[in-house]
Prior knowledge:
The protein is mainly alpha-helical and 85 residues long. It has helices spanning 5-28, 32-84. The mean pLDDT is 81.
Amino acid sequence: MKITKKVKKLIVMCLVMSVVASVGFVVASADNSAAITAMNTAFTGIAADITGVIVSVLPIALGVLGLIIAIRFGIRWFRSLVGRA
Length: 85
């Protein structure tokens, strides 16, 4: 399924609105300290999870990217040798 630009914008807008609604809930709640602590804990957990995923995936992604670049340069170099012969 191809996701169009409009659908991507709609998804991002929904995510932003959910965060804004969450922040609005924190501001409007009667017991601000408990709500703020809950939001802080939730966002800290999300940040830790995202950081963990990035740390796990980054070495693999860099290796694959390096391999792709090396193959491209190798093909270009080989074509330059064959073209001169």
